[in-house]
From TrEMBL:
<dbReference type="InterPro" id="IPR036390">
    <property type="entry name" value="WH_DNA-bd_sf"/>
</dbReference>
<protein>
    <recommendedName>
        <fullName>HTH marR-type domain-containing protein</fullName>
    </recommendedName>
</protein>
<dbReference type="InterPro" id="IPR039422">
    <property type="entry name" value="MarR/SlyA-like"/>
</dbReference>
<dbReference type="InterPro" id="IPR036388">
    <property type="entry name" value="WH-like_DNA-bd_sf"/>
</dbReference>
<keyword id="KW-0238">DNA-binding</keyword>
<feature type="domain" description="HTH marR-type">
    <location>
        <begin position="17"/>
        <end position="151"/>
    </location>
</feature>
<keyword id="KW-0804">Transcription</keyword>
<dbReference type="InterPro" id="IPR023187">
    <property type="entry name" value="Tscrpt_reg_MarR-type_CS"/>
</dbReference>
<dbReference type="Pfam" id="PF12802">
    <property type="entry name" value="MarR_2"/>
</dbReference>
<dbReference type="InterPro" id="IPR000835">
    <property type="entry name" value="HTH_MarR-typ"/>
</dbReference>
<keyword id="KW-0805">Transcription regulation</keyword>
């Protein structure tokens, strides 16, 4: 990379600051790449980067397909396609919702929890790498600011 240029800035005006979406997208992409590589090394070659949203949104308690789709800003059909693949591969299962017998809850299977563990370990390693590269104080500040931003967004205050 040539010193003094920012590969993120794609504008014809190099003095224009990149928008926040660009600044957030590359680190997120690196997380996905690192997780995908770790999953494949661990033998989970049937999980693709597109499937990672299911693991991110599902959490430990499980969720309905319609809720996953809403949280992922996807159609129910698109989320269903991803979930069907993961269910067929043995990573998730559908169980009866104890609050509504007509509905199904998606949850991780033991294989899904193992894959989630691989992903968490890869993310922890990446965070440790970034903390070393940036300096622990700067990395801690980044995490603190991102947590604050996420908390504000959850309460609807996106000022």
């Amino acid at each position: 990379m040539v010193r003094g240029t920012d590969p993120i800035v794609k504008s014809s005006d190099q003095n224009q600051a990149p928008l926040i979406g660009l600044l957030l997208s590359r680190p997120f992409q690196v997380v996905d790449e690192r997780v995908n590589a770790a999953l494949h090394r661990a033998g989970h070659t049937d999980i693709r980067p597109a499937h990672q949203i299911v693991f991110r949104l599902l959490g430990g308690g499980g969720a309905r397909l319609v809720d996953l789709a809403a949280r992922g800003l996807m159609t129910k059909q698109s989320m269903g396609y991803l979930v069907d693949h993961l269910e067929g591969a043995g990573y998730v299962e559908r169980v009866s919702d104890p609050l509504d017998g007509r509905a199904k809850i998606l949850q991780l299977t033991p294989l899904g929890r193992a894959a989630e563990g691989v992903a968490r370990a890869a993310i922890t390693e990446l965070q440790n790498d970034w903390a070393r590269e940036m300096g622990q104080g700067d990395f801690d500040l980044l995490i603190q600011l991102l947590r604050r931003l996420n908390a504000q967004l959850q309460t609807g205050d996106s000022r």
